[in-house]
Amino acid sequence: MSVDVVDLEKSYDTAPIVRRVSFSAPTAAITALIGPSGSGKTTLLRLIAGLEIADKGRILIAGRDVTTTTVQCRGIGLVFQGYALFPHLSVEDNIAFGLRVRKQPREQIEARVTEMLRLVQLEHLRRRRPADLSGGQRQRIAFARALATEPAVLLLDEPFGALDARVRAELREWLTHLHEETRTTTLLVTHDQDEALEVSQHVVVLLDGEVAQMGAPQEVYDEPATPATASFLGASPLKAPSVGGRDAVAFVRPADVRLTRAPLDDVSAGRFGTVERSKIVGARVKLVLRLVQGGERVDVDVGRDEFEALGARAGDVVVLDVRNARVFLGDYAI
């Protein structure tokens, strides 16, 4: 069941939040909607869900125009960051809630609840209340409830945002396996780029309420289409040699820079930078350098072993070896 968004617009008090957004979420794939805060990600998801009404444009699910239909008629399942479980109901009653609203036979409801508990691997917790569960378990129950009604599309709004890093990592892997089993067309709003790249098959980048780029995760990451997209995806701008008389800017990610000690008698050996500060973060080290020529700031991320072998401290001059960069021609403020 594909989801097609066509020229969608939404404003609040004359302030545009979603601006002529168009994209297609492929059938049986996870499409991640990413972008900075205020880019329109959650508003767009709420428009697709029917929780907000678009000012202009169309929304189609499996080719059917649902732009003006109610939430109940869109065939969607919703999972939010805050779980939204009923605290007074047991796990099995939470999962069964939507089925009972649809007045399905009791035997079918019991069978479906058992199937969902098996799917999320929490059969042993069926009689517990949400307060007795961990955050990760509550979120898996929220997924089970959303999937119980066999929705055509699953909409996820920052589903792991309230969880700690270890649990988020576990649930990302769990979501991948869940999707492989259900093959439900899914739209995922997340602020976590690693999460989007890990679990999705399709990415839509939103900037200022507009689609800046879309495509396969690795394609978008490796080949950002604009300087703004490159910057959002973690690259920093550096002046580059002009090309055909036009100014050029190279966008470089911290992990794509290798460092060596600068030879004291040869300033032509490469791009030189002075170490301003370094910070050990687990097995990695994050450094801030200032280029000797031009004074631009460069962020670098290297392995701890590499950093210790380098032996550089604040004030030392090092050579930067840029392994990969995305170059754009034309004016760009650095």
Structure characteristics:
5-stranded antiparallel sheet; OB fold (Dihydrolipoamide Acetyltransferase, E2P); 9 helices; 28% helix; Rossmann fold; 334 residues
CATH superfamily of the largest domain: P-loop containing nucleotide triphosphate hydrolases
N-to-C SSE series?
A: EEEHEEEHHHEHEHEEHHEEEEEEHEE
Q: Which fold does the CATH topology of the largest domain refer to?
A: Rossmann fold
What is the oligomeric state here? Answer: single chain
- Biggest sheet descriptor: 6 strands, mixed
Fraction of helical residues: 25-40%
Total DSSP E strands: 18
Summed up, the helix count is 9
The Rg value, from CA coordinates, equals 24 Å
Secondary structure class reads alpha+beta
- How confident overall, as mean pLDDT? 92
Shape: globular
The CATH C-level class name of the largest domain: Alpha Beta
Protein described:
The protein is α+β, with helices and mostly antiparallel strands and 334 residues long. The protein has 2 domains: 3-230, 3-Layer(aba) Sandwich (Rossmann fold), CATH 3.40.50; 236-329, RNA polymerase II/Efflux pump adaptor protein, barrel-sandwich hybrid domain (OB fold (Dihydrolipoamide Acetyltransferase, E2P)), CATH 2.40.50. The protein has helices at residues 41-49, 91-101, 106-119, 135-148, 165-182, 193-199, 217-222, 227-232, 304-310, and strands at 3-12, 15-25, 30-34, 56-61, 64-65, 76-80, 153-157, 185-189, 202-207, 210-215, 236-243, 246-252, 257-261, 271-281, 284-291, 297-303, 317-322, 326-329. Strands 6-7-8-3-9-10 form a 6-stranded mixed sheet, with helices on both faces. The chain is globular. The protein starts with a strand and ends in a 5-residue tail after the last strand.
